[in-house]
Design brief:
With 418 residues, the protein is an alpha/beta fold. It folds into four domains: 158 residues, Molybdenum Cofactor Biosythetic Enzyme, Chain A, CATH 3.40.980.10; 59 residues, Molybdopterin biosynthesis moea protein, domain 2; 86 residues, Molybdopterin biosynthesis moea protein, domain 3 (Molybdopterin biosynthesis moeA protein, domain 3, Beta Complex), CATH 2.170.190.11; 80 residues, MoeA, C-terminal, domain IV (Beta-clip, Beta Barrel). Helix content is 17%, strand content 31%. The strands form eight sheets. Strands 7-4-6-5-9-8 form a six-stranded mixed sheet, with no helix packed on it. Helix 1 crosses helix 6 and helix 4 packs across helix 5. The longest helix is centred in the last third of the chain and has 19 residues. It starts with a helix and ends in an 18-residue tail after the last strand. Magnesium ion binds next to loops.
């Protein structure tokens, strides 16, 4: 039997290379940047005011002074008149600095005087450069905006848009075809006949795929016949996936046809028993450049196998230089017994303790058919092959796949004091 680490290394050896594509800026959110992006021009493009106020010469305003107002410059406008000694121009936030001016005094530090021509009393002193955002002060032309591998969140998208970039090179979302197998499966919403269950794995897998940044393509459920299974794989391959995943039918049962179907499609197939719980059967092969994963059918095994073996491959194919789930130390509040011989991934519901550390509890029965143990969990405690479980109070390395437990029910967020 392979160790988890060996199985993972073999899967990753065949990660498809990331594909570059260009998308419009409006579709860039959540994508991974495929090239370094440099600033095409100056940011900001010209000197402008950081305040609503008056643009003037700092030399004029070493103390309190009365200045004649030349004009009003709004954002989107341009000052036409040079600011000469004894004058100033009313200026709005974001408007270009007029010629001659080298400082801005904010409106709150001024007082308009009655009469024409318009005059304003300014409370100095004004330092040269005050309340001015200089051209290129954020980025100069050619300076780096974002590096390859950056995840484009709302802030990053805003930065690129602000620099005038409308087309963004990103790594293509890997296309992942998903096949369910099993005569017992019917869709949720359909009544159950004798012996039937509602199929859940394809939906769960599609969810994990989309959450990991892939493009899930649900290719339906194969019946438990060799011809039906071969047929389903053919259909899945015809959508030109980057990865293909099946679930169920990889065990040693009389109606498990995935391995045979691979053989009749000419897929070079490795069949591994991985020394882990849940879910030791894992079939792995590839047709041409398309890696194929035959995941187990039990809902928990299926999802845990996906997270261990498929997700890193998917993230690599997405150009992510850090494809693994984060591991944090969790103090467990309950105990768990385990037999040595296989690694075990125990589902934990997590919460933040008072001091900001992470506490966890097992999510009930850890049977590999218990979808609830996965649905209620935020992470997987990693118990090594020799481990015999854990007692309350122990600290365990835990892979986190859901951070929602870190959100707070009540503000205020504790600020650093002093
Ligand atoms: P198998 O590996 O096909 O023998 O399936 C193992 C167990 O997982 C059986 O109890 C199946 O009914 C169940 N199972 C297989 N596929 C699915 C699925 N897509 N959704 C829910 N349960 C499944
Ligand atoms: Mg089956």
């Amino acid at each position: 039997m392979l160790s988890v680490e060996e199985a993972r290394a073999r899967c990753e050896a065949v990660s498809p290379a990331p594909r570059l594509e260009e998308v419009g800026i409006e579709a860039a959110l959540g994508r991974v940047l495929a090239r370094d992006l440099d600033c095409p021009g100056s940011l900001p493009p010209w000197d402008n005011s950081a305040m609503d106020g008056f643009a003037l010469r700092a030399l004029d305003a070493s103390g309190e002074v009365v200045l004649r107002v030349l004009e009003t410059i709004q954002a989107g406008g341009v000052g036409r008149l040079e600011v000469l000694p004894g004058t100033c121009s009313r200026i709005m936030t974001g408007a270009p600095l007029p010629p001659g001016a080298d400082a801005v005094v904010m409106r709150e530090d001024t007082e308009l005087l009655p009469g024409t021509p318009e005059q304003v009393r300014v409370r100095g002193p004004a330092a040269p450069g005050q309340h001015i955002r200089r051209a290129g002060s954020e980025r100069r032309p050619g300076e780096r905006l974002l590096s390859v591998g950056s995840l484009l969140g709302p802030g990053a998208v805003g930065l690129l848009a602000g620099a005038g970039i409308d087309r963004v090179p990103v790594w293509a979302r890997p296309r992942v075809a998903v096949i369910g197998t099993g005569d017992e499966l019917v869709a949720p919403g359909s009544p159950l006949g004798p012996g039937q269950i509602h199929g859940s794995n394809s939906l769960a897998l599609c969810g994990w795929i989309e959450q990991a940044g892939g493009l899930a393509i649900d290719c339906g459920v194969a019946p438990d016949t060799l011809a039906g299974t071969v047929d389903a794989f053919g259909r899945a391959l015809s959508v030109q996936p980057d990865l293909l995943i099946s679930t169920g039918g990889v065990s040693v049962g009389d109606f498990d046809f995935v391995k045979e179907a691979f053989a009749s499609l000419g897929v070079g197939l490795d069949f591994w028993k991985v020394r882990m719980k849940p879910g030791k059967p894992l079939a792995f092969g590839h047709i041409g450049a398309v890696p194929i994963f035959g995941l187990p059918g039990n809902p928990v095994s299926c999802q845990v196998n996906f997270l261990q073996f498929v997700r890193p491959v998917l993230r690599r194919a997405l150009g992510d230089p850090r494809p693994y789930l984060p591991v944090v130390q969790v103090r467990v509040l309950d105990g768990f017994h385990k037999n040595p011989g296989r690694a075990e991934l125990v589902r934990l519901a997590l919460r933040l303790a008072e001091d900001g550390s992470v506490e966890g509890r097992t999510t009930g029965d850890q049977g590999s058919g218990q979808g609830s143990s996965m649905a209620w969990a935020h992470g997987l405690a990693l118990l090594g092959v020799e481990s015999q479980g854990f007692a309350p109070g122990e600290r365990l390395p835990t892979q986190v796949f859901d951070w929602s437990f870190t959100a707070r029910e009540a503000d205020p967020t504790p600020w650093r004091a002093g």
